[in-house]
Amino acid sequence: MRIGLAYNEKPDPNSADEPPSSSDAYAEWDEPSTITAVEQALGLFGSVVRLEADSLFPQKLALARPHIVFNMAEGLLGPNRESHVPAICEYLDVPYTGSDPLTLSLALHKGRAKELLAYRGVPTAPFALVEQPADVDGIALPYPLFVKPVAEGSGKGITIKNLCDSPSRLEERALFLLEEYRQPVLVETYLPGREFTVAILGNGADAYCLPVVGFDFATLPDGVPPIYGYEAKWIWDTAETQLEIFECPARVPRPLYRRIEQTALAAYHALGCRDWCRVDIRLDADDVPNVVELNPLPGIIPDPRMNSCFPKAARVAGYSYDELMQEVVRIAWRRITGTDIGGAATAEASA
C-alpha cells in the first residue's frame, strides 16, 4: 500500500532564504520532527510518499497516485487554505483522511462555524464580526468581550491583550487585528468559566470522545487573564520550561463531563467533521459548555513535553503516538471503502 503524506513544514527561522514575517506567521505549520514521526507511524501500512503542500502539490500528487493521503497540511494562503489539499485530492480522485473541503473552510472561519452551530442549537457565545473599522461602533454585546482574527489557528492573533473591558479597548484591538491579519475580526461575549478541549475519533454514530482535557489557568503567570492563547502555547510553554496547564481526564463532576462530551459531539456532527477533530469548549457564567471552535486538522506534536492536546488525550486512552496516527488511517479507510484496512483491502490496494 502507498500512503501520501500531505504537510506544511515550518521554515528554518535561521535560514537566509526565510522572508521576514510576523512572529506567528507559521504557527500552524509542523516541525520536521512531527512530520517524521507521522511518516514513521504510517510506515506500518506500506510505503510513505512525502507530498509537501506547496505550489507543486497537484503535480506531485498526480505522479505519486497514493492509495490514500494522510492530510495534515494547513495550507498556504487565504481563508480556504485548509481545504486546498482535500479539494485537489477530490479533483484527482485520490482518497484522503479527515474532513472535506467544505467542513475545513467552515471550521476555519469562526464566524461561519458559529452561525451553523447556533442554527443547530449547539451552545456558542454571542458574537459579531468587524469587517471594516466602522463596524466597531455597531457592536452591541455586553462587556467584557474577546476579539480574535476570524480565520486563524494555533493561537495566531490570540493574546492576553484581546480581552476588552471598554469600547476604547475594543476599538484599539479590533483595528490592530484588522490591520495585522487582513481579515475580519470576531468579537464575542467573554466566557468566564473553565476551558476544555475534546479530541474526537470516528464517524457517524461511531464517533467517540477521548478523555477530556481540562485547563488549569492557575499555572499561568501571575496577573494574566485565564486565556490559552499564543503566549501560553508558544512562549510560556516550552520543552525546557513546561507549562503544567492541562489535566486529563478533566476533574469535573460526572454530569458536567458528559455535557462537555455531548456538546463537542454535537458540534462535530453539525459541521460534518470526519475521522477526527478537536473541539474547544468553555463554560459560561452558568457552567453551560459553549463551543469556542473546531479543529479538524488538530495539532499532533509527538513530544509529550510539548502539551499537544490530541496526542495527550490519546495517551490517556491507551494509544501510543504511532497507534493514534494508524487509527486515523483505519477510520478513514473504513469510511471510504466499507472494509477494514489489512487483509483483502491491503492486497487490493497494493495490486
* CATH class group of the largest domain: Alpha Beta
Query: Helical residue percent?
Result: 25-40%
- The pLDDT mean sits at 90
Number of domains: 3
Q: Per CATH, which architecture of the largest domain?
A: 2-Layer Sandwich
- Low-confidence runs (pLDDT<50, min 5 residues)? 18-22, 343-351
**Quaternary structure classification:** single chain
Order of helices and strands: EHEHEHHHEEEHEEEEHEHEEHHH
Q: Tell me the distance between the termini.
A: 8 Å
Number of helices: 11
**What's the count of strands?**
13
* CATH fold-level assignment of the largest domain: D-amino Acid Aminotransferase, Chain A, domain 1
Question: Can you say what the CATH homologous superfamily of the largest domain is?
Answer: ATP-grasp fold, B domain
The main sheet comes to: 6 strands, antiparallel
Specify Rg, calculated over alpha carbons.
20 Å
Shape: globular
Strand content bin: 15-25%
Structural class: alpha+beta
